[in-house]
Amino acid sequence: MTDSLIDIIIEGDSDEIGAGEVGKVLKGIQDTVYDIGEYVFSGTYRKSGRRDPIIQKRTKLYFEKVEKGSFSAALKGEDQTTIYGKTLIEESVGLVGEIFVNLNSLPSDEIGEIISKKIDDPLQTSRILNDILDFWPGGDNSYELEVNTYEHKIGRLDKEKKASISKLAKVDTITKLEKTFGVLSAVRYVPDQTFEIRGPDGNIKCKYIDKHRDKIESMKEKPVFVLGDVKVDQAGNIKEIVEIDDIRLMDKIELSRILTDEGELDLKEPTIAEVDFENNTWIFSNPILNIIASGKKYDEALSSFQEHFYYLYETYYLGDPDNMEGHALKIREYISTLLGADK
């Protein structure tokens, strides 16, 4: 990846721009690209602000070019291997560009509805808008800022839109029907009916009523999805589920993108990872590919699954079919189908 993804120009009141202003803009853009990347990757973003290390690596921006004076920079992603479609960072920056165009050009009363169609989760929308609010010019940010992406010419950001972004970025402390996941544990019956789910977001307390008790009993120490009204902090992080609407086993997840240190695959059809939790260990498996990946932490198991998948891609999809037979050819055919390839 050699061409820049994002070009920025920062201009201050004087001839030179301070390091503090530059740092704020660069951090804000990086945070925005990461949070959108997490949404693009799975739609199940981190509800406590904890970051996925692989997504963090794959959405990291680097300087391609820096010019003195006002401060002008071209930012690019890490050189990486991908196939059939955009890389995660390209797709993320593309969505960043769409959002910036809307924030900068639409009437203030139309922005909220348009943004919610692009990011359909209210908490994730608030998280991303707070990222943007932190460096958008106006208020305490006395600089002028021009931003363009590889797909969108946005131009100078309108300082007058900062108030609208601030209003949209606010989070209700009680939010309706959010979903989170983890291992169901620590069930209590008195004085309050509660349990905890332990997962990538830490331990989240959940309140339940009698009609959910039998289901909860049958799911102890199993991975679950919990849907309900949640209590959040001002950053949009879930602190508690105050009323459960539904709870179900988390027996599988779909992955439409494979991210590893070696490379990245954009799947046209999602692959399935069956999910279990035994002996304090997360387990991800796929019987078609003969993958069994595990880890004490959710991130570790998910990363291991993706590494196994990428190894099979390199071995069987990129390998010579004349040297394969039986199950090896079935793996090759399955991966070809997921990639939407005729090979």
Describe what this molecule looks like in 3D:
- The protein is of the alpha+beta class.
- It has nine helices and 14 strands.
- Strand 6 and strand 7 form a beta hairpin.
- The chain is flat.
Primary descriptors:
343 residues, alpha+beta, OB fold (Dihydrolipoamide Acetyltransferase, E2P), five-stranded antiparallel β-sheet, 9 helices, 35% helix
Q: Give the total of domains.
A: 3
What's the SSE pattern?
Answer: EHHEEHHHEEHEEEHEEEEEEHH
Tell me the strand percentage band: 25-35%
Measured distance between first and last alpha carbons: 25 Å
Q: How do the strands of the widest beta sheet line up side by side?
A: 2-3-1-4-5
Number of helices: 9
Counting helices, strands and paired strands, the structural category is: alpha+beta
Task: Give me the count of strands.
Answer: 14
Output the radius of gyration.
Answer: 22 Å
Shape: flat
- Summarize the biggest pleated sheet: 5 strands, antiparallel
Helix content: 25-40%
Low-confidence segments, given as residue ranges, are none
What would the average pLDDT be, to the nearest integer? 88
How is the secondary structure organized here?
Layout (H helix, E strand, L loop, with lengths): L5 E6 L7 H24 L10 H6 L2 E7 L4 E6 L10 H18 L2 H11 L3 H14 L8 E6 L3 E4 L5 H8 L4 E15 L5 E6 L2 E6 L5 H6 L4 E10 L5 E12 L2 E8 L4 E15 L2 E6 L4 E5 L2 H20 L9 H13 L4
Parallel strand pairs: 8-10
Antiparallel strand pairs: 1-3, 1-4, 2-3, 4-5, 6-7, 6-9, 7-8, 9-10, 11-12, 12-13, 13-14
Helix pairs in contact: 1-3, 1-5, 3-4, 5-6, 8-9
